[in-house]
Design brief:
328 residues; alpha/beta; eight-stranded parallel barrel; two-stranded antiparallel ribbon; 12 helices; globular; Luciferase-like_sf; oxidoreductase activity, acting on paired donors, with incorporation or reduction of molecular oxygen; Luciferase-like_dom; F420-G6PD/mer; Probable F420-dependent oxidoreductase, Rv2161c family
């Protein structure tokens, strides 16, 4: 695919906040994202609830889940919830989906075998597409079975035109391993990995492009995205301390050198140089997740106003073409 410009998104860390979102909407930011677990080990929210708040508290930006752990949800219910939110937002919802599994107890509590999460996700995607396609749907599969189910579109008060988008909101596949890449190539509207270095992203582009070619899928319109933890400060040392403190606890098994590869930190000039490597690897929509425990709006503001203008698209190179050529 080709893209006319590089776009920025931001993660609403630590929780969606009305004033924070209003400030972000005044920046050159195209999207805001937030995920969540059902039974997280800390006091953080759930993905659909957070998405509803972001939908209600924004007017312009695209809003998305990064990510929704799809195997934990019944697809009929989540199809209705997402379709309603998309309609009320004027078609601004995107759905980043992942399989989860890092917190096994939430799978056990919900009666979902953790070993089935990949297959259950694939089947749920099929159900979502069918229900959003309109008309009655019957489905018989290993995880879900139902007959003659039809979603009734919601038309918000004062709406003039269709309720939501035909076919539903885009499904952006997240993950880090090859099964997720194959899922993106087969059934996703885009790819949104996390904790990836630019080199890993380039390899994922090649994998997705190759698999799409094998199954005869045209990736025109496919969204090449990346969820990147980072900190941008006037004081580069403070930014690096942000990342070490923020990610050191959550990902303490990763050495500092690895954190440096997957979580850019520093001054606007330093972070731009690092994020340019992601762009060169094929990313066209960067979701900046502030790896900081305070003043996350400051991180996003510097990223949008002083990092984004420094990024440039590779001249005359499309993402798929670069992948086929083995370009980094």
């Amino acid at each position: 695919m080709s893209a006319e410009r590089i776009t920025f998104g931001a993660a609403a860390i630590p929780e969606p906040d009305r004033a924070w979102l209003a400030a972000v909407e005044r920046l050159p930011i195209d999207s805001v994202w937030q995920g969540g677990h059902v039974l997280p080990p800390s006091d953080t929210g759930e993905a659909i609830t957070r998405l509803a708040l972001m939908t209600a508290w924004t007017e312009r930006v695209r809003v998305g889940t990064a990510v929704l752990l799809l195997p934990l949800y019944h697809p009929v219910l989540v199809a209705k919830q997402l379709a309603d939110l998309d309609a009320h937002s004027g078609g601004r919802v995107s759905v980043g989906i992942g399989v989860g599994g890092e917190f096994r107890h939430e799978f056990d509590a919900l009666g979902v075998p953790v070993a089935s999460r990949g297959a259950r996700t694939d089947e749920a995607i099929e159900v979502l597409r069918a229900l959003w396609g309109g008309g009655p749907v019957s489905h018989s599969g290993p995880a879900f079975s139902f007959d003659d189910v039809q979603l009734r579109p919601v038309r918000p008060p004062g709406a003039d035109g269709p309720a939501g988008r035909p076919g539903g909101p885009p499904l952006i596949v997240s993950g880090r391993k090859e099964p997720a890449m194959r899922r993106a190539a087969r059934a996703g509207d885009g790819w949104l990995p996390y904790l990836f270095s630019p080199e890993a992203y380039a390899r994922s582009v090649r994998t997705i492009t190759a698999h799409a070619a094998e199954i005869g899928r045209d990736l025109a319109g496919f969204e090449w995205m990346a969820y990147v933890y980072c900190s941008v400060r006037r004081d580069g040392d403070r930014a690096r301390d942000d990342v070490a403190t923020f990610l050191g606890g959550a990902y303490g098994d990763k050495p500092g050198a690895m954190l440096d590869r997957i979580a850019p930190a520093g001054t606007p000039e330093e972070v731009a140089a690092r994020l340019q490597q992601y762009v060169d690897a094929g990313v066209r929509h960067l979701v900046v997740s502030p790896a900081a425990r305070e003043d996350t709006l400051g991180v996003v503001t510097l990223a949008a106003e002083e990092v984004l203008p420094r990024l440039t698209l590779p001249a005359g190179v499309e993402v798929g073409v670069a992948a086929e050529a083995g370009a980094p």
